[in-house]
Amino acid sequence: MIVFTVDDSGLIKDISRQLGEYSAKAPTVLMQAINAAAKETRRMLADKAGEAYVVQRSRFNKAMKIKNASISQPAALIKAKGKPLELLDFKVNPKKFAVGDARPEIRKAKVLAKSGLKRLEAGGIKAFVARFQSGHLSLVQRRGQGRFPLKTLFSSSIPKMIGDEKRVYGLVEPEIGDILDANIRKAIQKTIERGQRGSSR
After folding, report:
1. Which of the four, 28, 44, 100, 125, has the lowest number of CB atoms within 10 Å?
2. Could you give the CA distance from residue 135 to residue 106 in angstroms, rounded to a whole number?
3. In the chain, which ranges are continuous DSSP H helix?
4. Taking the mean position of all CA atoms in its chain, how far away is CA 24?
């Protein structure tokens, strides 16, 4: 969870000064800048997560929801939700369901983009792709020597990946202040330009 909040007392005064004759728009400018910064940060988090993990970037973006700031509440919230993903959602080789002689000798998988594929075998028990009655495919492993029971193999959740201090959030967090400052400048400029266009009619 990432919160965009500001000590708006001094900031509002500074924005008002820069707006000049449009100073009454300062609270709106701050709200717009915070919301724009939150959206930009969400995109950056999705990009970094997509670079670090072998999961489609669109999945990261969809998992993060933004609660927008308002004039009375100059704070935006980015919150990621999601359960642990099945290992089959990551890179698995081979990934297709197969039976009999077509079944591969070994399956390999990786979660991190920069890591190598690892053999999916523990205690001599190999993982395989199973198709359930619903048609759903999962990468599973037997719990013992018998055919059943099976356990589905899982990895990290999207919130955990986004919160990765080493690979994702830790790389974006130092830039958040600059992102907000840049969006404040943009919002100020747009407000002044709109005001000038309106007064020239």
Report:
1. 100
2. 22
3. 8-19, 26-52, 57-63, 158-162, 169-172, 176-199
4. 35
